[in-house]
Structures are given as structure tokens and as C-alpha cells.
Amino acid sequence: MLSQEDGALLAVENLDVHYGDLQALHNVSLRIPQGAIVSIIGANGAGKSTLLGAITGLNKPTRGKITFRNEDISSIHTHDIVSRGITMSPEGSRVFEKMSVEENLLIGAYLSRARKKRRELLERVYGLFPILKQKSGQLATYLSGGQRQMLAIGRALMVDPEVILCDEVSLGLAPVIVKDIYHKIVEINREGMTFILVEQDVKRSLRYSHYSYVMVKGRIVMEGRSAQLPEEQVREAYFGISRYA
Amino acid sequence: MEVLLQSLVNGILLGGLYAVIGLGMSLIFGIMGLINLAHGDLIIVSTYISMVVALKYSGNIFIALLITVLVMIVVGFFCQSVLINRVVDKGAEPPLLITFGLSVILQNVLQLIFGADAKSIPTKLAAANVITTPWFSISAIYLIDFVVSILVILSLHFIIMKTYFGRAIRATSGDVMASELVGLNTKRVYAVTMALAMITASIAGLLVGMTFTYYPTTGTEYLIIAFGVVVIGGMGSLVGTLLGGIILGLAQILGSYFFGMAYQLFFGYVVLLVILTFRPQGLFANTK
Fold it and tell me: What is the complex's ipTM, to 2 decimals?
């Protein structure tokens, strides 16, 4: 079973991130084992997206270190981090509106390693999300919210990464669609993909992940195996009504 | 009647040349939202390089074009990666100022090397007519301008719509962050796109040099033409750029036909003003 004591594929150590004078992350540390689904739970403004931004090189840390396969990646560009095997399905899906669904997926396989097996990757994505195959020629701008989220995850899969960060997968989607997307994430994870999921939905985060971190005001206030974390305590921390606030 | 027909033909053919003048500017605006104020001067730099090479090789236009394209690819890549990329994500003004500075420097360097006198690229085509009918005739150089322009636009369209790099250009123009997250080095994409824009500028420069006379400060005129073309056509739209060129060409030549030569430029600007008033996004925006 996946354990936090195992060697971490991705590790964040004592990370601080500032936006000007404002400190968004305080001394954050995480360990992401290979093949795990790790969730980061927290309310709006807790620093979850900032943390994902730091891992993907979009925000530069002011202190601390991020290592991937024991290599320090804290100060390299986003595209270099992606070429090492980490990518993200960003909040709001951020699909390329004026490109077709298939072009959105193919641009995912831009790097030479992925490009060589783009047909195979494309078939895998179409296998997971058949609706994307049906709409392959359509411009992404005409997709529904759920389909855009599937496209963003599909595009991330096309990068052929080792780790996928998903920022707010369920945001603005109907519960039945969210459930479907989470099932797909579990299915992809069973094939070996490591996931970091950022969520506001406590129940869902704990149900679908192996390990969870709870963030409040830029700090990790609780962590543990998702199955063992008491939902009530997580919820308290989340709403900021406990000793953590 | 014959003169009107001749004006229509000339307006359309000239429009093709205008389109290729505006093409690079449209491309750069489309991907990074930057109005390259040095675009006209870069075209004229190409014209001077073509002239020097053409004179050296006794008027061989193809060698002139090849060398100019190679030099301008390097110039474009350098300007983007060393100068503009440093400030491209720091708001609209800094990159605009850099291209303005570049424009001033290029004009003065040209003046220093070649003097302020008008020049032209010597070619036998300048005075020849290829088609002569009782109603109108088509000059060889205008026809070449038009055909080459169409070929350049079609090639660029193919690159942007059908190749992996074209897809990277479109992705970067759509969402920089999402592009970085699929592994695109967006600043490299900018630099290569600028080099691509400079290929179109080199071709425009050679055609301009064979068609008209020029001097070191002519770049400003072509900047305004390029600006007119992309405003009429819609920034970032290739089809729009071609049609924008033809509309501007027709407006100028027909203005000159009905009101006299002095009104040629004036009517180009009137059409520009009317379109900006009623359709500020351009006639063919979003048709890329």
C-alpha cells in the first residue's frame, strides 16, 4: 500500500510563497508517493492553488524547496517542469477555445516524447472520454462545463506525464458529472498515474484519495490517510471554526 | 471607363502587396497583442539588404531574397528573444516603447549607411506589361506583387492551421499559462513567430523595393499601411489581412481616380476611419 514513509516522487519542503508583501504559503511541506492520489483540501483563499502554482513553476517560492525524483525544480520554468513529467489541469479548465477538441488534445502531445506516441495517447483519452471523440472536430468553445473539464484532463494525459495536478475539478459542475470524472481519475490512477487533487469538497476528497492534507490560511493544519481522517475535524478546519483558524 | 477599370485592377493588385506588408504585424499582434512599431522599418531594412545583395549579384532577385530572409530571421529572433521577451509580460507599454526605440535606431542606422536619398531595386520588370487589353493592362511588377502575396498568405495559413508549430502559435495566442502547462516554451514560440513575421517582412521589403522608390524613413509610411490593413481586416486574421489590403488598395486608387492623386492617401485613411467607427474590431475579426 502507498505509504508516506516510502520515497516520495514529489516533495515540497518548508515552502513560503509571497505575492508582494502578502505571504500566501507558510512553511508548507508535502510528500507525494508514486502512484498515489493525494488531495489538498481547503476553503477559498487557503493557498491550494498557490501551492499547485509553485509546484508547476507558475509562482516562485521565496523559501523552501520542491524536488521531483530528488531533483530540485523550485526555480525552473513551467515548460521545463512539464518536460520532466509534471503537468496540471488548471482551475476553470483553460481549454484552447478557438481550437478543435482534437487539436486541444494534440497540442498536449507537443513535447517530442509524447509526440512520438500521440496516436496511442489519443486513443487512450478517447477510450476514457468517448464524448471527446464524438466532438473531436468541434471548437472547444462550444463544449459544456463537464466536457471542458474532461478535455483539460485529457490534454494533461496527452503530455504523458507522471504526475497530474487537478485544480478544482468539481467547480461549477453537476454532481453526477463530477462523480463520473472522479471515477475516471481513479481509473487512470490504477494504471499508475500519480494525482494531486485540490478540492473544496471534503467528503469527495477523502473518498477518492489515498492521503489528504488540509490547508488553512496558507498552512498545512492536518494530514493523514484519507480513510482515517475524521471528516468532522477536517470540516471544522475547513470552515475555520476550530483551533486551526 | 477604361481608366476606372484600370484603377480597379491596380487597386486590387496593390492591395495584395499591402496585405503582405501587414501580414507580419497581424501575426505578431495575434499572438502577443503587441503592435510592432518597428514593423515598417524592418520591411525597409529588408529592402536595403535586398538592394545591396541584388547590386552585388547583378540583379539576381532570388539570391537577394534568400539572403535577406536569412538575415531577417536572425534579426527577428534576436529582437524578440533579447529585447522584447524581457518585457512582454510586463504590460502593454514597455514592449511598445522597445519597438518604437527600435524604429528610431533602424531609421538612423539606414540613414548613416545609405544616406537620405531615394533608392530603388533595379529590375527589368518595373516598366513591363504582361497583359494588355483594350480596357486595361496589368504591369508585370504589380502582378508579381499580387501573386507572391497570395502565395505567402496561403503558406502562412498552412503553417498556422496544419503544422505542430502553427498549433503552438495558436495555443500561445489563446492562453499562455495553459500552453506552458503542455510544455510549450512560450517565449521561444514568440521568438520563432517573430522570425516567421520577418520572413514575410523580407518578401514585402523586396517587393516594395522593386515596385516603389524608398529612403531610410519610408518605414513609417509602411507601418501606417500595415496598421490600416490589420485594422480593416481584423487583427490576427489572415483572410482579413488579405481583404484588408485589397480594401485599402482600392480605397487609395479609387480616391485618386475620382479626386486626384493628392487624395490617394487621404481616402485610405477615410476608409480606415469609417471602419474603426462602425466596426472597431475589424471587418473580418475571428475568421482566422
Answer: 0.92
Q: Is the pLDDT of residue A2 over 60?
A: no
pLDDT recorded at residue A13:
96
Q: How many domains would you assign to chain B?
A: 1
CA dihedral B41, B46, B49, B55 (to 10 degrees): -120
**Who among A82, A99, A115 is closest to B181 (CB)?**
A82
User: What is the chain B residue with the closest CA to A141?
Assistant: B174
Average of pLDDT values for B215-240? 89
pLDDT, residue B123, reads 76
Grid coordinates representing B262 are 493628392
Terminal-residue alpha carbon distance, chain A: 33
Give me the residue spans of the domains in chain A. Answer: 1-85+163-245, 93-161
pLDDT in tens, A20-59: 999 999 999 999 999 999 999 998 889 999 999 999 999 9
- Is the CB of residue B153 less than 8 Å from the CB of residue B173? no
- List residues of chain B with CB under 8 Å from any CB of chain A: 164, 167-168, 170-171, 174-175, 177-186, 286, 288
CATH number at residue B48: 1.10.3470
Partner-chain contact B180 A98, CB within 8 Å: no
Q: Which of A78, A97, A99 sits opposite B181 (nearest CB)?
A: A78
Residue B104 lies in a domain: yes
Q: Is residue B283 part of a domain?
A: no
Q: In which domain, by residue range, is B44 found? A: 2-278
Chain A partners within 8 Å of B286 (Cβ): 98
Q: Rounded to the nearest 10 degrees, what angle do helices B186-211 and B140-162 cross at?
A: 170
Task: Encode pLDDT of A168-180 as tens digits.
Answer: 988 889 999 999 9
Q: Which residues does B141 contact at the CB level (< 8 Å), separation at least 6? A: B123, B125, B126, B128, B210, B211
Q: Which of A58, A99, A159 lies closest to B177 in CB terms?
A: A58
Is B158's pLDDT higher than 80?
Answer: yes
pTM, 2 dp? 0.90
What pLDDT does residue A6 have? 57
Candidates B170, B180, B182, B237, partner chain A, best to mutate (most A CBs within 10 A)? B182
A115-128 pLDDT, tens per residue?
999 999 999 999 99
Looking at the domain assignment, is residue B253 inside a domain? yes
Q: Decide if B184 and A156 are in contact by the 8 Å CB cutoff.
A: no
- Domain A1-85+163-245, CATH 2.70.50.60 — does that match? no
Distance separating alpha carbons of residues A98 and A143, to the nearest angstrom:
11
**B171 CA to chain A: closest CA distance, Å?**
6
Cβ neighbours of A94 in B, within 8 Å: 175, 177-178, 181
User: Half-sphere exposure of residue A202, counting CA atoms within 13 Å on the CB side?
Assistant: 17
CB B13 within 8 A of CB B142: yes
Does the residue B286 lie in any domain? no
Within 8 A of A110 by CB-CB distance, chain B residues are 164, 167-168, 182-184
